[in-house]
Recover the amino acids of this structure.
């Protein structure tokens, strides 16, 4: 279930882009006065072939006292937490995905699950955000793409190194956000994601390539322009609203003597409502780390 959530947060940002050679990274140094923090844009599911990570990530980690992640998700062995999450992601009062979707949209969804040898009725009790996360995991498996992402890698490393880990939001906040994805526009939400799945592997690889070389312009086009045009409501829920909630928490990090490394999905960094722009507007100096 943890992988479903992380996969969704990555998958909704995959759109086509071209790659140009650059020596930048997806790590930024944010400064005010004599104090600074690092922010790394991450990919939540990362194949083994993408390791070792770009050295700028490892250098930022080495030169900080603690890491800050998006949210502490429940351990897969925590049965109570998993049940609570499933309950939040499920319909109640007799509603189902089939009763909410238009017949044509539900037929498209049925065809998708039929194509992979599955039965759509296994999933009709779940809300759209959770169904889409299941589909994303299926697409990763079809493409033989698996592995812990950047966030999970540094979380494990911090535990081993006994570095403190802080979080920008609670697991409950993430569950609530995911459970409401697509609410009120379920048909458009499902159809947009079904269309995305048709080119999933290419989108994923191109995103990885842009992320590894820190191609900020291409990633901004990828995440902000294409994603907003595809599904602005979901984009705002996943990125815009959360970014604005996070900025005061990031500013609070400048009020102590620690040096922090913030690790959030790359989609949170770009655009006029991205963390980079929001922090610049607050008077912080933001510098992209490069080789």
């Amino acid at each position: 279930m943890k992988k479903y959530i992380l996969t969704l947060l990555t998958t909704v940002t995959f759109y086509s882009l071209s790659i140009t050679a650059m020596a930048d990274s997806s790590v930024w140094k944010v400064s005010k006065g004599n104090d600074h923090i690092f922010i790394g844009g991450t990919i939540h599911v990362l194949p083994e072939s993408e390791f070792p990570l770009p050295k700028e990530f490892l250098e930022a980690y080495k030169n900080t006292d603690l890491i800050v992640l998006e949210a502490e998700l429940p351990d897969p062995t925590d049965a109570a937490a998993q049940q609570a999450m499933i309950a939040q992601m499920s319909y109640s009062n007799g509603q189902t995905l089939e009763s909410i979707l238009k017949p044509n949209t539900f037929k498209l969804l049925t065809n998708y699950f039929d194509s992979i040898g599955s039965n759509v009725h296994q999933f009709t009790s779940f809300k759209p955000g959770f169904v889409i996360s299941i589909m994303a995991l299926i697409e990763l498996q079809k493409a033989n793409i698996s592995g812990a992402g950047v966030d999970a890698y540094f979380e494990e490393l911090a535990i081993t190194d006994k570095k403190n880990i802080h979080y920008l939001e609670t697991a409950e906040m993430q569950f609530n956000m995911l459970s409401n994805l697509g609410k009120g526009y379920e048909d458009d939400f499902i159809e947009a994601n079904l269309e995305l799945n048709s080119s999933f592997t290419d989108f994923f690889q191109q995103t990885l390539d842009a992320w590894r070389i820190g191609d900020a312009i291409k990633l901004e086009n990828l995440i902000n322009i294409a994603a907003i045009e595809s599904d602005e409501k979901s984009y705002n829920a996943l990125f815009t609203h959360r970014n604005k909630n996070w900025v005061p928490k990031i500013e609070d990090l400048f009020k102590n003597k620690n040096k922090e490394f913030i690790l959030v999905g790359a989609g949170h960094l770009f655009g006029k409502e991205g963390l980079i722009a929001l922090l610049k507007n607050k008077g912080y100096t933001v510098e992209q780390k490069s080789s």
